Amino acid sequence: MGIKQKENFLERMTLSSMKRLEENKAKRSEESLLRTCEGIERMSSVQFQSEFIFITEIKKSSPSLGEISRPEFNLFEQAEVYVDGGADVISVLTEPTKFSGSLNDLDDISKTFSKALTMRKDFLVEPYQVSEAFMHGASGVLLITAMLSDAMLRMMIDRAIEHQMFVLLESFDEEDMQRSKDIISEYGSQSANILLGVNCRDLRTLDVSFSRFEELSVLIPQDVMCIAESGITEASEIEFLSQIGYSGALIGTSLMQSENPGQLLKEMMMAASKKK
C-alpha cells in the first residue's frame, strides 16, 4: 500500500491542484482574473544576466521530510537573507497540503521585496494558475513537463509570455528532457525566458538520484539555460554542476535547514564563480 501511494505522488498532487483550481475559479472567473492582471503594471520581461542563476526557495515542509523550516523560521527574514545574499529569484511554494505553502506567502514576499524576482512553485495544471501567480506578484512559474500535455504546456507558456513572466520547465528523465527541449525550440527568440530544469528528485516516485544531473547533462542544448533542482546541499556540488553545463541551481531544503543560510548561499556563489 505504501509503495503504491509513493508511486502516485505526482498524480495525487495533480488532482489536488485541480481541486484548488476549481475552488478558485468558483470565487473568481478567468475573465475577471485576466481583467485584474491587465491592470497590473510590472517591470518588462525578465532578463537573466548572471553567469550562474541562484533560485532560492521558501519551503516550510516537504513530502519526504515533513516540516523542514527551523523553529525560529520567519518568512520575511528568510527572504531577506536571500535578497541580501544576491539570489536571482526567490521560489515560493504555494502548495498547501504537502508543502505548507500558500498564495498569501507569494503575495507577501512579492510585495515586501518588490524589486526581487519571485517564482510560484506548485503543481500547476492550467493557464488560470499562471495568471493567478502573476496577480500575486510572481515574475515566473514552474511547470512540470511530466504532468502536462504538450498542448497544455504551450497554452501555459503562452500565458506566461503574455504576462512577461519567465518559465522554469521541469524534467525528471530523458523523455521529459526531449519534450521540454522540443517545446522550448518552438518559441524562437521568446525562449530566452524559458529555463530548462532538471530535478534529481523524481516526483512520480520521490526518489532522489544526484547522478541524474550528470546523466542528463549531455542533453542540455547550448543555447538554453539549464537549472539543477533538488538534492543540492553544499558548495562543492555547485562547482561540479557549473562545470558539467548547468547555468543555475534551485536550492531549498539545505537553505531552509541551515542555521546560517546566508553563509551557505555565499559559499555556493563563490563555488559557482570557479566555473571553468
Give the helices and strands, then pairings.
Layout (H helix, E strand, L loop, with lengths): L1 H6 L1 H19 L2 H9 L14 E6 L2 E2 L3 E2 L7 H10 L4 E5 L9 H10 L4 E5 L5 H9 L4 E5 L5 H13 L3 E6 L2 H12 L8 E6 L1 E2 L4 E2 L2 H7 L8 E4 L5 H9 L4 E4 L1 H5 L3 H12 L4
Parallel strand pairs: 1-4, 1-12, 4-5, 5-6, 6-7, 7-8, 8-11, 11-12
Antiparallel strand pairs: 2-3, 9-10
Number of domains: 1
Number of helices: 12
Mind describing the biggest β-sheet?
Answer: 8 strands, parallel, barrel
Portion of residues within helices: 40-55%
Q: Give average pLDDT, whole number.
A: 92
Q: Give the CA-based shape.
A: globular
The SSE order reads HHHEEEHEHEHEHEHEEEHEHEHH
Quickly give the CATH architecture: Alpha-Beta Barrel
Strand content: 15-25%
Structural class: alpha/beta
Q: What is the end-to-end distance? A: 47 Å
Radius of gyration: 17 Å
According to CATH, the homologous superfamily is Aldolase class I
Question: How many β-strand runs?
Answer: 12
Q: What name does the CATH topology carry?
A: TIM Barrel
- Which stretches of 5+ consecutive residues score pLDDT under 50? 1-7
